[in-house]
Amino acid sequence: MNSKTAQSALMARIVSVSDSETDLQKLAYAAKGLESLTNQTPEDFTGSYGVSWNQSTDTYAQLGSSTNHVALPIQSKMRRCLLADDGTVSAYLHAADSSFLANGGAATLDGSAGQVMVEIPKFYFKHTFSGSTHSWEVSEIPLSGFAVHPAFIKNNIEVDFRYMGAYEASSASSKMGSASGVYPAVSKTRTTFRSEASARGTGWRQVDFYLHSAIQLLYLVEYKDFNSQEMIGQGRTTLSSGAWSNGSYIGICGYSDAHGNQTANQTTSGGGVTGDIQGDFMSYRGIENLFGNIWKMVDGWTVNDVSSSQMIQYATNNDADFADTGSTNMTVIYDDTSPHATGAYISELADISTGFLGTTLSGASNTYVGDYYWQYADGSGWSLPRVGSTADNGAPAGVFALYVHTASSASDAHVGSRVAF
Question: What pTM was computed for the model?
Fold first, then answer.
């Protein structure tokens, strides 16, 4: 990679600075970046960055550009916005407080001015597995051996951005949304959620397998540790003595508003439920309750519990092929011929390029992946994948928590979804 390419990549970063920055701040940012080009190689700005994990020794190592590990050029561009039904950004929200627009005006977060979403920029990735070591790297630009993350090949078209609901999915007038000040919708089937998402307009859907796995990857590269409850906080996972009703276990959307695009956490000491005043939540770069509060269904992902000795998982990023059963036009994610008849903490991962699926379940809440995989293979047929876990689940919850033993047609008072575009 030559200096001209590096400068182009840097200028692309400069012009993407939040609209809330003044022209003077932008110029200062540019000057600082161009000055540093004289002291560092082009790869310091445009190279990959990542993490390796030896699943035998449970040790991590930083990979790639140390500059990028500080700057986090992909993660730092994740930002909240208001997205119109036609998929265009109406406005960006203030980086530090979503109650305001990026230009300082008051923001409307109830969905009437657009759904509150987190914009995620396209990136490239690479995964390798050697011996007992997984390595994951990401890059803003195409490097040798890297590919566009499949989250950004949507309906067979490469897109520059994906959008994930800043909040768990709401439901109004039979349309899925993402709005502050409302409770997340629960007790609906994935088929119903799918219909309500598409009713918002072309391009709208529930969060799909590939987008979910992209966020997992960005989290992992940023923190270099699977244990999200240790890195970010326990979020809304420690409540007790409540019920699966609004204002009890189920928290209202919007607790993270005052934190904007930042990663944040609040976990109440003691964890008991008294109305909804405790305000427990977590947010990863603007995505509120990525884990905890309620389970989130994921679409474009089917799980066939064939028998006690085989479980096959499939995925697609073409919403015309989203389904609750079957694998038509889907790709096999992982054919597990040694599935588990129980749930436990993940200690080893499958050698797959996209996603994070446990193969060995002999860990603990503070070792290895630190999240639970509820598998229960028994030949019960097509199952519903759901992620993140719930307000009362405690240590098993997290960014990598996964449950695949619910019937594909199920609905439940502690299971919801999240909208995406």
Answer: 0.90
